[in-house]
Amino acid sequence: MTKDLLNIRHLENGYGASQVLFGMDLTVRQGQCVSLLGRNGMGKSTTIKSLMGLLPAWKGEILWKGQPIQHSAPHVIAKAGVGLVPEGRQVFPNLSVRENLIATANARGGGAQGWTLERVYQLFPRLQERSSHFGNQLSGGEQQMLAIGRALMTNPELLVLDEATEGLSPLVRQEIWTALSLLRTNGMAILVVDKNIVPILKLCDQHYIVEKGKVAWSGCSAELESNSQLRTRYLSA
After folding, report:
1. Cross-strand pairs, 209
2. pLDDT digits (tens, 9 = 90+) for 97-112
3. What is the DSSP letter of 163?
4. With 60 as the cut, is the pLDDT of residue 127 above it?
5. What is the pLDDT of residue 108?
6. In 10 A of CB 171, how many CB atoms?
7. pLDDT averaged over the chain?
8. Are 124 and 173 in contact (CB under 8 A)?
9. Which domains, from first to last, does the chain contain?
10. What pLDDT shows up at residue 111?
11. Cα–Cα distance between 237 and 221 in angstroms, integer?
12. CA dihedral 190, 193, 197, 202 (to 10 degrees)
């Protein structure tokens, strides 16, 4: 039986006096791919920021392999095995592709299967072609590939993507989904936020729909795909 990597329990959080999360619950198991769905402003990114230590939790628990991390610093959470691909990509603009990747390299328990420049280049050959180019010289799609590669270089057990394909062309989106599918096949756990429901249904095992800061529905791909009323109610713009 696979073990839980991440448990978020009864999480409350927000910004200043504005509460955004009202009892958020979420579980990701080893090797599992989980999506976080919902309209804009419902708490998806706030959940990710809370998980990564970028927004200290008000109440509730965030457990990583059973240990509380809701008061841990972002670098501690990253070293523990959680890799973030942030919304907006946030690559280093004045570093080359190669330097961006090396900057986040982490020898944390990767062993023979640890991520290297060569493995990232195999996943995204375009990054090797552009290895000497600066981050600000890349297209949006190339920057997203670099952001994913940079997260992989930390040797994560859980890869977290906030708006995985937002603003990208259909062709580049497909490249990203193909890469994520390969990562999943190789046993990596993934937590992904995105609005493109068709590839999400193919990629992920479990889905959580967030409405007003808490889970309104959770279930498998077959359930979500067959329930058009559910998709219209919670996911339509």
Report:
1. 37, 217
2. 999 999 988 755 544 4
3. S
4. yes
5. 54
6. 8
7. 94
8. no
9. 1-74+197-237 (3.40.50.300)
10. 46
11. 20
12. 0
